[in-house]
Design goal:
This protein has four helices and nine strands, in the order αβββββαααββββ. The protein is of the alpha+beta class. It has two domains: 98 residues, no CATH class; 74 residues, no CATH class. The strands form three sheets. A five-stranded antiparallel β-sheet has the order 4-3-2-1-5. Strands 6-9 form a two-stranded antiparallel ribbon. It has a two-stranded antiparallel sheet with strand order 7-8. The longest helix is centred in the middle third of the chain and has 25 residues. The structure holds zinc ion (2 copies). One zinc ion binds next to loops.
Length: 174
C-alpha cells in the first residue's frame, strides 16, 4: 500500500475516507487550499462535486487517510476497497483534475455570491481583451487568459476566494 503515499505526495493530493461521503480528495493545488486556515474545498469522489469544510475539521476519524482506512476495515473487504481507491485516485489525476476546473470556479464563485447575498451566476471565459489585475478582496493575481469571468458583472473571478466585482455583482450596462 506504499504507492498510496508516493502517488498522493507526488501529485499534491490527499485521498481519504469520510464516513458521510465516502472517498474524498483534498487537492493542495487548488488556490483555495494553499492554507488550511479557514474554509477549504474537498472533492466528493462519488459524484465528483466539491464541498467545503473548515480546515480544522481535517482530523481522524472524520477524515481518515486511505491507508489508515484500509487497515481499519474488515480484512476480506480490503482488497476490493484498495482497488476502488486506486482507480479513483488515477481517475482524478488523469482526467477529473482538468475537467473540474470550471466546476471549481463556479463553486467558489457561488459560495462568494451567497455570502454577499446574491443569487448564483454562471461563469465564462473571455473571448478577447487580455486583462490582468489583482483581487481586491484577497490580493491574489487575476488574469482573464487563465481565469474565468462572472457572467453578470464581467469581472475576472478570483481563483482563490471566488470574488468578482467589488461593492456588488450587478448587471453590466452595455
Ligand atoms: Zn480573491
Ligand atoms: Zn459578478
Amino acid at each position: 500500500m506504499d504507492y498510496f503515499y508516493s502517488k498522493t505526495q507526488d501529485n499534491d493530493l490527499w485521498l481519504g475516507f469520510k464516513p458521510q461521503y465516502g472517498w474524498v480528495i483534498y487537492d493542495r493545488k487548488l488556490p483555495s487550499n494553499k492554507s488550511v486556515h479557514g474554509e477549504v474545498y474537498w472533492i466528493k469522489c462519488s459524484d465528483w462535486t466539491f464541498f467545503k469544510d473548515k480546515g480544522s475539521n481535517w482530523n481522524y476519524p472524520e477524515y481518515s487517510f486511505v491507508v489508515s482506512y484500509l487497515k481499519d476495515i474488515e480484512t476480506n473487504q480490503q482488497k476490493e476497497n484498495e482497488e476502488k481507491a486506486l482507480s479513483i485516485l488515477d481517475e482524478y489525476i488523469n482526467k477529473k483534475r482538468n475537467e473540474m476546473d470550471l466546476k471549481y470556479i463556479e463553486t467558489i464563485h457561488n459560495n462568494y455570491l451567497e455570502k454577499k447575498g446574491f443569487s448564483p451566476r454562471s461563469v465564462l471565459k473571455a473571448k478577447s481583451g487580455r486583462r490582468e489585475s489583482g483581487c481586491w478582496e484577497c490580493k491574489n493575481t487575476v488574469d482573464n487568459k487563465y481565469d474565468y469571468e462572472c457572467s453578470t458583472c464581467r469581472w475576472i473571478i478570483c481563483s482563490s476566494c471566488g470574488a468578482c466585482k467589488q461593492f456588488g455583482c450587478i448587471e453590466r450596462k452595455n
